[in-house]
Amino acid sequence: MNRKLVTAIGVVLLVALAGCSGAVGSTDAGGAGPGDESALEQNVEVTATGEATAEPDRATLRVAVTATGADSATVRDELANRNDALRTALTEWGLDEDDIRTDRYDVRESYETRENPNRSRYQGVHSYAITVDDVDAVGEVIDVAVDAGADEVRRIEFGLSDEREREVREAAIENAMANAEGDATVLANSSGLDLSGAYSVSTANAGVRPYRVSDAAMAAESGGADGAATGIETGDVRVRVTVNVVYAATQA
Questions:
Q1: What number is the average pLDDT over the span 97-119?
Q2: How many whole angstroms separate alpha carbon 77 and alpha carbon 156?
């Protein structure tokens, strides 16, 4: 290639690069350069959690009926008969059919490995989630279920109805926002800033923590031989919400 041509190309490239270098790091904020602090956005960002509690107005009982037999058909039939008896007793007491839902249904073969290793038996379980809107009647519903053939009372959760949960969640959000503002104020004061209002807010990690009753607690509170209804301890339901808030700030 001609040396004069190579030299000409090199000069053109140098001129082009010089023009590009003038654009690097430039801003379009009224001619303000990268070192102009007035063009920078000032804010205070915080994450805070708020909590609210309430007495439960709904309970969910998980009970189960079990059966064993020499074949799966026998186990299935026994579970079906006990299902009818349980549902009839609960609906006669006052629950709706929709309040009694199947939580689990399982029939499987179980091998005997000790006395007779070659013989197999079948076992089945039908567990239910029973919703009770009158929390004071939970013990009575347990007694009805057990008397109707329920073999196990596995767990009780005291929670909130949908409407009540929304109310308590709103209170938790208000508490979270109050905590966020308090934290942001401390941060601003420590940084020589004044808050001028929130311009970005979001929630995260919202959750409800029902009050759960264990098997041991239920056994300790069970009614005795005098015919008294089973007594169940209750406690508050907790709702917790986390908020992320960005506050605009100005120099103090």
A1: 81
A2: 28
- pLDDT at site 233: 83
Extract the tokens encoding 115.
Answer: 């006395």
- Spell out a b/e string for 13-42, using b for 16 or more CB atoms within 10 Å of the CB, else e: eeeeeeeeeeeeeeeeeeeeeeeeeeeeeb
Element (H, E) at 144: helix 138-147
**Separation between Cα atoms, residue 235 and residue 233, nearest integer Å:** 7
Would you state the pLDDT for residue 72?
92
Per-residue pLDDT tens digits for 38-91 = 434 789 999 999 999 999 999 999 999 999 998 899 999 999 999 999 999 999
Read off the tokens for 235: 């406690």
Query: Measuring CA to CA, which residue among 42, 44, 23 is closest to residue 34?
Result: 23
**Rounded to the nearest 5 degrees, what angle is found at the Cα of 221, between the Cα atoms of 215 and 227?**
120
- Is residue 239 within 8 A of residue 209, CB to CB? The reply is yes
